[in-house]
C-alpha cells in the first residue's frame, strides 16, 4: 500500500484512466471507531491487488482488495460493509455485502467500491473515406480513435487494451496485419472480402506467423450487412465492436488478471476474511477439503471445533 491523501489518489486515478488501465476506486463512506480509516479515505486497487492510498489496516485490506477485483471483473459497483452484521442494523439491501473482519476492536467500515473502466480505444489503420467515417462515429460515442496511415503504423501504436481495424484497401495489407498481430489487441479486424482475407492470412502463415495469432483476425471486419456503402460498413464495424464489448468478449487484460487473482483467494471460515491460497498460506485439510486462514488464531479455533465453522460456511 502506498501512502497518499485522497486528492492524490484522485489525481493518480485520472492518470491511470488516461493510460487506459482498468482499476477500482474504493472510498470509505462510514466509520465506527476505533478504526485507522476516516470517512473520505480513498484508495486505488489494481487488478493485481496493488493498493495505492489508504482504506484501512490489515483486517480490512484483504477483503477490500478481493471485493475490488470482483468489481473490476463485473464492472458493477458495490458497497462493502466490514464488521459484524449487528453493527449495520437489520436487513442488508441488495448490492451490499457484510464481511466479518478479525480485528479484536469494535471498529467497522462501509467502503464504496466502483469500477473505473477506461474509454474504449480504437486504432484505425488507413485513410479511406470509410476509415474517416469510422473514426468520426467512434468519437461521437465518446471513444478514443486514432487514424494512422498504413505505412506509419507500428506495433507500438496498439496494445492488448485497444481494438484495431485495418482498412488499407490492399496497400501493404500483409505487412500491416503482421505488425498488428504482434501487438495482440483485444480485437483485430481487416476490412475486405473473405477471399482477400484468405490470401493475406495464408501469406502470413507461410511467413511463419503462428496460426493461433492469425485465427484472431476477423475478416471481413464488422457485422455482415450484405452489399453496403462505405458509411454503412463503418456502422457495421462499430456495431460489431459494441456487441462484443457488451458480451464481455473484449475483456481487458486487467479484468483477466483480476479474475485470476479472485480465483487464487479463499474465505477464512472462522473470521470471513479473504486470504491468499498460495504455498505460504496457513491451511488445514479436513475430510478432503482444504481450508485457508488469515492467522494462527483462526486456524486453532477451527481445529478446536470445525463443525461450528462448517455450519456457518453452509449458511453463508
Write the layout of secondary structure elements.
Blueprint: H1 6-18, E1 23-32, E2 42-46, E3 51-53, H2 61-74, E4 78-82, E5 96-99, E6 108-116, E7 121-125, H3 129-140, E8 144-148, E9 163-166, H4 173-183, E10 187-190, H5 194-206, H6 211-214, E11 217-218, H7 230-246, H8 253-263, E12 265-267, E13 274-276, E14 282-286, E15 289-293, H9 296-304, H10 306-315
Parallel strand pairs: 4-5, 7-8, 7-9, 9-10, 10-11
Antiparallel strand pairs: 1-2, 1-6, 2-3, 4-6, 12-13, 14-15
Helix pairs in contact: 2-8, 3-7, 4-5, 9-10
Structural commentary:
- With 316 residues, this protein is of the alpha/beta class.
- It has 3 domains: 1-118, no CATH class; 121-251, Rossmann fold (3-Layer(aba) Sandwich); 264-316, no CATH class.
- 36% of the residues lie in helices and 23% in strands.
- The protein has helices at residues 6-18, 61-74, 129-140, 173-183, 194-206, 211-214, 230-246, 253-263, 296-304, 306-315, and strands at 23-32, 42-46, 51-53, 78-82, 96-99, 108-116, 121-125, 144-148, 163-166, 187-190, 217-218, 265-267, 274-276, 282-286, 289-293.
- It has a 6-stranded mixed β-sheet, with helices on both faces.
- The longest helix is centred in the C-terminal third of the chain and has 17 residues, at 230-246.
- The protein is elongated and about 70 Å long.
- The chain starts with 5 loop residues before the first helix and ends with a helix.
